[in-house]
Amino acid sequence: MANITDRQMSAKPGASDRWLSETIIWGHGSLVARITPSGERLFYFRYMDSQGKRATYPIGSYSRDGGGMMTLADARKRAAELATLHKNGTRDIREYVEAEQTTAEAARNAALARMEKERAEAEAAVAALAARQTVTALFERWMKIDIANRKDGGAEVRRMFEKDVLPSIGNRFVADVKKSHVAEVTDAMLARGVNRAAKIAFSLMRQMFRFAVDRDLIEHDPTASIRKAKIGQKDTERDRVLSDEEIKQLATKIHDARLLITTEVAIWIALATCCRIGELLGARWEDINLEAKTWIIPAQNSKNGKPHLIYLSDFAIRQFERVKTINGKSTWCYPNTDNSGPVSSKTVTKQLGDRERQSDQGVMSRRSAKPHALLLAGGKWTPHDLRRTGATLMTALGVIPEVAERCLNHTEEKKVKRIYQRHSYAKEMTEAWVLLGEHLDTITGSDAENITPIAAKH
Length: 458
Hints:
The protein is α+β, with helices and mostly antiparallel strands.
């Protein structure tokens, strides 16, 4: 039987299948080629199975130059392999090849599983090596990724860590830090009497170690079993609220306190808008529309990271107009000395503190010559107390607490209520600020001596 040629395999197909064959090993198998009317050119191995019947097993498709299929030489080689198996006693070629393929597939799967295991072990080794980095290295990574986008660029966090945390545990490997090491940091701060700072430092360390857990640098957070409430004493919540009489007293005393005019105005704006003093000192004129009577505190300036729209009463408008007369050409309502940014948020607090010293305390060097000028009957007060006072006055004037809270830009603590309570209270908030402004006009006006206290009105 003549061998099959490439010329035969490349011939044009006919109206029916055309079959070609050549003997590979006499009595043990032949190579068969089939050319279909559609132009397919297929190879088969033909042999006698264990039942003595002729069987045909497909081995591939023809291509003269290969191209992902079989050349004639490839087909002969494969047919010779199968014929040799048949000669050596394997009669069920199809079953043998399929079993062989199953074994090969199992071997490939086993190899892939082994490779995956080796990859996982390598990653675990890398993670273990990363965990051996020091706390200082972890701190720098955490600062760069999570903290650097804060308003101050993370300056306050860095200051606290470099002062209290890193000197104690900075050289330790992250994986070796235990809760006793964390306690060493907070205990040292508590011994200095800075309880609140100790709580803040603990919270920051917890954030950092949870950052490490999230990135598989360590398996467990060493602060997890430490309760923040157990660190130092419970924070004392201030409840200082200025009374009507104290506000009247302040309106009288403030003119003789030798404050900067802008600081004097800041006191009244904080009281009339219930804003945080830092939000006011960082305000830009572009966020204040005196004609529309609105002030937008952008998200980056607010404590909860959400923008806050304040409606300005006539009382508040007059105060902003006084500031604009002085600082209207600047970008900021309260610019620093070289006009490169806003003034420090501690400026007003310091000026007020310098003027609220007890009567038995003398004048301090390089401090105000009016150390007792702003002392009020109820004791020392701060800019934040003005915010609390404004909200308290609102509720005393009949504003519902929910609206007063919105005026403070407080975030609702109950998650369900945050999700389903979507009413903006814009109208009610506007009315609340108007009521507060009118009341402040009455208290600080020329007829202040004859006004009726809020409690008596309601």
